[in-house]
Specification:
Elements lengths: L8 E7 L6 H11 L20 H6 L6 E7 L2 E7 L8 H9 L2 E7 L6 H12 L3 E7 L8 H12 L3 E3 L1 E6 L2 E7 L4 E6 L2 E5 L5 H16 L2 H8 L6 H14 L3 E5 L8 H11 L8 E5 L2 E5 L8 E10 L3 E10 L1 E3 L3 E4 L5 E3 L3 E5 L2 E5 L1 E3 L3 E5 L9 E3 L5 E3 L9 E7 L5 H14 L4 E5 L4 E6 L2 H15 L3 E4 L6 E4 L3 E9 L6 E11 L6 E4 L11 H11 L13 E9 L7 H15 L5 E15 L3 H10 L3 E8 L3 E9 L6 H9 L4 E11 L2 H14 L1
Parallel strand pairs: 1-3, 1-4, 4-5, 5-11, 6-11, 32-33
Antiparallel strand pairs: 2-3, 7-8, 8-9, 9-10, 12-13, 12-24, 14-15, 14-23, 15-22, 16-21, 17-18, 17-23, 19-20, 19-22, 25-27, 25-28, 26-27, 29-34, 30-31, 31-33, 34-36, 34-37, 35-36
């Protein structure tokens, strides 16, 4: 593969809803450029960017994949991002490497939630956007209706560029509004035909010319004077408008057959923002800085994706923001400051790699088996440390307890999940020391299912998922005074310990121990033994065996035997006092309460509040947010939140996002307490 300058390198992320045809369109673009002989089918696992075994099995993309597309003097790096919400991390990876985004829509479904979220994320990062309305060979597909919905949602930014001319409900031909030429298609092959006398097409060309004129003052003046634009002027206006975010070109075609895809490829190669269109934001010596995309500049390359393979090793995908990365050069990790051993560098072609002499500024590539690299790290030259902004990944929102089918695989399971966490920053695996469970967290049920499947296929460990236990607590509500007496005689020295302890509620999680013994009833050297006996006892409450908190214990009296008393005797006596006194001190169960923040569309406010109320939550307030969204703040019992992410996805069609953090413990209602205590009794 030949080297291409940054000014002719276009990194384009394909975003959209699951099933909209992004992966098929990627194949169609490759076929239109002559790289492929035919367009693959996702259902058959035959597409270039769906190379992972899990993707082939499921017939859907689950991670971002890259393939280069050489076209004329340009190089387009197409980054196919997953459309399923559970794999939103792939969208962030794709946008970290992309300079623009192509939002793929279905001519039947229009602007779906996945397209909305992809567009919003791209715009937030300042990326230029374009739309492709595909599947126009399907029944009930309607380009005009979809274009109207794009315009209704995003206003005058929507700019038609390649549009269909209709005969009834069938596409008669596709019109390139830039060159004002029309084509019919037999698969990928286009045949020029006369531009039809179609009033709708004429109106759309007028819309495009107005948008182009608005992008440039000189063109605006020419437009008002009634002069015609040249094809070059139109392309220049589209490029400037797309780079500024004022124009979102809209293309039409058919993903599977490739009809009109070649028209889009030719125009997009010319108008999409180049890799050197704007400098990269970074940190230098802790201060914000900008780094121009210059092959002769200092080395700075962002690792935006990692693939963990037990056989090949770790493969780190990177985008070079400045300079060039060559094999066998000295480099450092900006995060750790450690030296990196860079072997050969490679271009990425779907699931394959091709050796490269170097990867230059603006281009993307990969390097294998560099152990100290994680997603989000910056590779830079020693003595010139630049830290590029890492992609911001969504936080896990669904947690399940996981245990290996074979207990002997416990360590292999942990090692495998840690490897998968390197590959997927939206996955989290940790031990809950309170419930003694291993917890796997992700973005949804499919996400966790894929992680479990990868663990089995890549690392040979089968595991089971189940609802995680809740870390309840216990405490008391009144003060009691109780005796703990331990006496045992078994020949020779016996055992004797006698204590009187007052138990009462207090603030805090740790046991508060005091002693107010007068007259030497209990010698001072036995005080630590009493405290130790109590600290061990509070680890298990009397109701359901959960740790006891908010407890103060005061040693007030007791007695001892000069021969038979020992530390063990007083430790046992303290334990007996705890077991005798706590049941009489009105013990209660405490449940964890979380602070919930949910970002939702206005239209779903009532349904979401209703769902929170069903979970015994308390809504504390609502704040307006951007784009007709609302933020709900609430407090909810953590025990009721195991399926909240699934409910939010159902209610808001995936538009909602939320955070849930532990806040405090509160007394559980009687019905909840009875269920927990009964369940604990059944498991004993």
């Amino acid at each position: 593969m030949k080297q291409v300058s940054a000014s002719h390198t276009k990194n384009i992320a394909l975003l959209g809803h699951g099933g909209s045809g992004k992966t098929t369109l990627t194949d169609a673009l490759l076929a239109a450029a002559g790289v492929l002989d035919r367009v693959g089918k996702t259902a058959e696992g035959g597409c270039v960017t769906d190379f992972d075994p899990e993707e082939k099995k499921r017939g859907a993309s689950i991670s971002a994949a890259i393939t280069p597309l050489p076209y004329k003097d340009y190089k387009l790096n197409l980054i196919d991002a997953p459309g399923l919400f559970d794999f939103a991390g792939g969208v962030r990876e794709a946008l970290a490497a992309a300079d623009s985004a192509l939002i793929v829509l279905s001519g039947k479904s229009g602007v779906t939630v996945g397209a909305e979220l992809g567009y919003a994320e791209a715009k937030k990062l300042g990326k230029g956007c374009a739309f492709f309305v595909g599947k126009l060979d399907s029944s009930h597909a309607n380009f005009r209706k979809v274009l109207s919905s794009i315009t209704g949602k995003y206003g005058a930014a929507a700019c038609p560029v390649v549009v269909p001319s209709m005969e009834g409900e069938q596409v008669a031909c596709y019109v390139d509004l830039v060159a004002n030429k029309a084509y019919t298609y037999d698969g990928l092959k286009g045949k020029e035909v006369p531009v039809p006398a179609d009033e709708n097409v004429e109106n759309l060309r007028s819309v495009m010319l107005e948008a182009v004129a608005a992008a440039d003052e000189a063109l605006m003046e020419k437009y008002f004077e009634g002069e015609s634009f040249t094809e070059e002027e139109i392309l220049t206006g589209l490029a400037e408008g797309m780079a500024a975010g004022d124009i979102c070109p809209v293309f039409a075609g058919v993903n599977q057959t490739g009809a009109a895809v070649g028209l889009m490829l030719d125009i997009l190669a010319k108008i999409a923002p180049a890799a050197d269109a704007r400098p990269a934001l970074c940190e230098k010596d802790g201060e914000p800085a900008e780094l121009p995309c210059d092959i002769d500049g200092p080395l700075a390359a962002l690792v935006f994706k990692t693939i963990a393979d037990p056989f090949v090793g770790k493969l780190s995908y990177f985008k070079v923001a400045s300079g060039k990365l060559k094999g066998d050069v000295k480099a450092v990790n900006a995060r750790t400051g450690g030296e990196l051993r860079i072997g050969k560098v490679m271009w990425v072609c779907g699931g394959k790699q091709e050796d490269a002499d170097y990867i230059g500024a603006g281009d993307v590539g990969a390097v294998a088996k560099v152990g100290d690299l994680l997603t989000g790290d910056t590779i830079c030259a020693p003595g010139a440390v630049y830290k590029l902004a890492p992609p911001a990944f969504p936080s896990p929102c669904l947690s399940m307890a996981v245990r290996p089918s074979n207990k002997a695989d416990d360590e292999k399971m942990a090692a495998g999940f840690f490897r998968l966490m390197e590959e997927d920053p939206t996955l989290k695996f940790e031990a809950n020391h309170e419930t003694h469970e291993q917890i796997l967290s992700g973005l949804g049920e499919q996400h966790l299912d894929v992680a479990v499947s990868k663990l089995k296929n890549k690392f040979g460990v089968a595991v089971n998922l189940q609802t995680p236990k809740v870390a309840y607590r216990e405490t008391i509500r009144k003060k009691v005074k109780v005796q703990g007496r331990h006496k045992k005689q078994s020949g020779g020295h016996g055992q004797f310990g006698d204590v009187w302890i007052e138990f009462e509620p207090c603030e805090g999680d740790e046991l508060v121990f005091e002693e107010k013994v007068f007259g030497g009833a209990v010698p001072k050297n036995f005080f630590p033994a009493v405290e130790k006996g109590l600290r061990e006892s509070v680890q298990k409450g009397v109701l359901a065996g959960y740790p006891m908190v908010g407890l103060k214990a005061t040693l007030v009296d007791g007695s001892y035997h000069p021969v038979d008393s020992s530390e063990m005797s007083f430790k046992t006596a303290a334990s007996l006092a705890y077991k005798a006194g706590i049941p009489d001190a009105s013990p209660v169960l405490l449940e964890p309460i979380g602070a919930l923040k949910v970002l939702i569309p206005d239209d779903n406010m009532g349904d979401v509040i209703g769902d929170i109320n069903k979970r015994r939550g308390r809504v504390l307030g609502m704040n307006p947010a951007e784009d007709r969204m609302q933020e709900i703040q609430a407090e909810v019992p953590m025990a009721e939140m195991s399926d909240f992410s699934t409910a939010m996805r159902s209610i808001t069609q995936g538009r909602a996002s939320f955070t849930l953090t532990f806040e405090r413990y509160e007394e559980a209602p009687p019905m909840v307490s009875q269920k927990v205590v009964a369940a604990a009794g059944q498991t004993e």
